[in-house]
């Protein structure tokens, strides 16, 4: 547990110390995507070509949103407060992440998927939604941890509880997803893959 605590502290301190650019320069570069995964199909039979494209779109959009989220993290780690416009953009980003997840989950649960895609599509949806939720909660926990440390009060069990909360988000699940993507020749930039 001490190793986890020290690892988190080192990551936090390195992130806070390494950022040098001004918030204004970075915020001007942040552009939210104009579209996310969406489908109006309901009770339809989805063919394999469309399913592959749907998975690719969902994963690539999630990767793009995650990269934008990283830019906001850098801004906040620089100890500069977000402007109202930046805060609004961050709120819009969080809404897009949730909507992207919700749209894909609805799509795979309300349509007939090609043979061999139902189980793996559900795995992808659970994994991405779970990792997005964990990242959101981890950000909040780190903020709380910094506040508690400055007050001389910190509970290691909060972080430990968060790390154990979603057991479906782990390297084994990611490997199964990547194997499925390889099997079906779905080219995506998710998980650091090149699209």
TrEMBL record:
The keyword Lipoprotein applies. InterPro entries: NDxxF_lipo. It comes from the Bacteria. This is Putative lipoprotein. It comes from Priestia megaterium (strain ATCC 14581 / DSM 32 / CCUG 1817 / JCM 2506 / NBRC 15308 / NCIMB 9376 / NCTC 10342 / NRRL B-14308 / VKM B-512 / Ford 19) (Bacillus megaterium). Keywords: Lipoprotein.
